[in-house]
Amino acid sequence: MSTSMKIDIGISDASREAIAGGLAKLLADSYTLYLKTHNYHWNVTGPMFNTLHLMFEAQYTELALAVDLIAERIRALGHPAPGSYRAYAALTGIPEEDDAPDAEEMIRRLVAGQETVVRTARSIFPLVDEAHDEPSADLLTQRMQVHEKNAWMLRSLLAS
User: Fold this and answer.
1) Do 63 and 47 contact (CB within 8 A), yes or no?
2) How far apart are CA 52 and CA 139, in angstroms?
3) Disulfide check for 28: which of 45, 58, 91, 131 has CB 3.0–4.6 Å away?
4) What ranges do the domains of the chain cover?
5) How far apart, in whole angstroms, are the C-alpha atoms of residue 139 and residue 46?
6) In terms of CATH, what superfamily is 13-158?
């Protein structure tokens, strides 16, 4: 017979639950952006093909590692990490698409996706700060740095 041990890390059950809920949204946004970026990597065409193909690959590879870190933090807080397309679709702020955009529109949509992830991460900070949850704060800071930089680099491709 298995019994769960109470989690006693200095963060209340209610705070751990709220933070895990916010991180679940971050996980959903990150995974959705991963899928979108990987799709664009496969399907980009045009004069910037090689540049975008390689940039998209670097970004989706980084996202693949990030989703694991986010899910593991949710688990460390004592909650299950969402792991289905249905769960991600319900939690994400990044729209799914079924069209085939050109390269410039791909870039615009990825900028929007990167910025959505940043806003989601930023929205969790009040909960994390109040609970003195430094590991989650560190994770959020790292995620925001990556996504703000990616958005800047993508936006730079559109500047005339």
Assistant:
1) no
2) 27
3) 91
4) 13-158
5) 36
6) Ferritin, core subunit, four-helix bundle (1.20.1260.10)
Neighbours of 111 (CB within 10 A): 19
What integer pLDDT is reported at residue 43 of this predicted model?
95
Nearest to 71 by CA among 41, 34, 97, 126: 34
- Cβ atoms 8, 16 nearer than 8 A: no
pLDDT tens digit sequence for 47-105? 999 999 999 999 999 999 999 999 999 999 999 999 999 999 999 999 988 899 999 99
Q: Quick one: tokens of 142?
A: 């790292």
The confidence score (pLDDT) of residue 111 equals 98
Residue 74, C-beta contacts closer than 8 angstroms, at least 6 positions apart: 20, 23, 24, 27, 80, 81
Q: How many CB atoms lie within 10 A of CB 32?
A: 23
